[in-house]
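Task: sequence design from structure.
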């Protein structure tokens, strides 16, 4: 499978305490891998072209405070027409992603981070008639420094217990009480609010 990629970007530190970069990219694939529900595997499909823009920022106004912001917008399409399939959207290709993190450190023995991750809706069919949900998950960590090489970390994943899906596909399936296969959305839900307490020791 032939693949060709190009990227151009710029990085700036003109604004005090801010590191910022902007990049444009393009990826041409000779064959796109697409998930097939019947077999539960990915299969080689038509050639495709993906293009996008990414903006990354790291802002440190104080030694103990850090902000991270990353934004990405992209466009993904098949470049070959398929007479058996209507449309050139690539199933599962996310076109909008955002990430925001706020971290504090060395506040005495304490440190902490709050991180938000957003995935925009994406096409589930080549004609874009079925689309996934968007998802926004926020997680947090509090860390206490017991000694020079020992930390106690408390992580809380999906802090606000949001109901969303990590993965979504659209394909036909048949339940025991159904007489024939039915096209529907199949998904893996995001984990509910989960806490993890860990003792971390460095040697």
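Answer:
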């Amino acid at each position: 499978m032939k693949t060709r990629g190009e990227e151009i970007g710029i990085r700036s530190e003109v604004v005090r305490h801010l590191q910022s970069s902007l990049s444009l990219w393009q990826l041409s694939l000779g064959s796109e891998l697409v998930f097939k529900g019947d077999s539960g595997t990915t299969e080689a499909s038509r050639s495709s072209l993906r293009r996008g823009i990414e903006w990354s920022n790291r802002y440190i106004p104080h030694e103990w405070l850090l902000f991270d912001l990353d934004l990405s917008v992209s466009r993904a399409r098949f470049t070959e027409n398929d007479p058996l399939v209507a449309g050139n959207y690539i199933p599962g290709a996310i076109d909008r992603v955002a990430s925001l993190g706020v971290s504090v450190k060395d506040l005495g023995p304490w440190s902490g981070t709050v991180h938000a991750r957003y995935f925009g809706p994406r096409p589930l069919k080549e004609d874009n008639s079925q689309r996934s949900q968007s998802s926004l998950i926020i997680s947090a960590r509090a860390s206490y420094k017991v000694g020079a090489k020992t930390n106690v970390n408390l992580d809380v994943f999906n802090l606000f217990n949001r109901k969303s899906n990590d993965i979504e596909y659209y394909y036909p399936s048949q339940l025991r009480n159904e007489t024939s296969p039915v096209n529907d959305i199949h998904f893996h839900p995001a984990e509910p609010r989960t806490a993890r307490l860990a003792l971390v020791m460095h040697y």
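The first strand starts at residue 3 and ends at 12.
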